[in-house]
Amino acid sequence: EELGRGLMPEPMLSTVLLGGTCLLLGGSAAQQEEHLAPVAAGERLLALSYQEARSRHAVHHVETRATPAGGGWMLRGEKLQVLDGHVADRLIVTARTSGEPHDAEGITLFLLRPDAPGVKVERQTRLDGRNAALVRLEDAHVDRHAVVGEVDQGGVLLARVIDRAGAALTAEMLGSMTAAFDMTIDYLKTRVQFGVPIGSFQALKHRAARLYAELELTRSAVMHAHRTIDEGRDDAAVARAVAIAKARASDAFLLIANEGVQMHGGIGMTDEHDIGFFLKRARATEQTFGDAAYHRDRMARLDGY
Questions:
Q1: Domain covering 157-302: architecture
Q2: What does pTM read for this prediction?
């Protein structure tokens, strides 16, 4: 939440919450021993490569293929929007070892070096100016010890990792929207027009009150998602709680950032004022791990509709 308040572009999401959680929940003892301590010390960066051109928000849509070769695996495919992938020391890549592209089963996760033969990493820039990468796998060979978790069973692990990272992202979004809201309220109190602070106008009071209500509802949803994880609830309960939190956070952050720009007037449209950076971050986080519409649909499906 505090990282979000300051819009800090740290690799917390990519390295700790995605890569680190992946190894923590599914990595072998050797993988955990080799990588988790350097991650905790800030000496190693990880990046989870799972999104593809046609996957959109579907976590289990994997077209990248892994075929047995020489006692290991040969990987071929392409991954998009790999958060901080351009500076990662290790990549965790999803690949299909059996089944069709949309199947939840038949997915395997592999740990590999970005400078390995057959691996090409190209830097990308996201909407909010933060970094990602395009990862191309052109017959990249890994040994059998590179498998994270079990062969063909990576879909369950991937879903658990994304939900936990998604919960953390909603906390970051909460911090960012709180900062944007506070910034806007301060402006309403200090900007004078017609001889009075513009915050004294009834229309702006009503709009600010709505933003506060949306902010507090989001706070409750985010706390519920984290409490569900902390209590060790089952995967379905966690998925539902995270879906609620992400849907509400996506809507609320975008609303608060948009209204913040509008209430700031002309200065809000400039790069010299910080409110615009919150709007860019709202747009980027809305699409990360699924937007509001995706998570509302997901919650409905989890409830049997």
A1: Up-down Bundle (1.20)
A2: 0.96
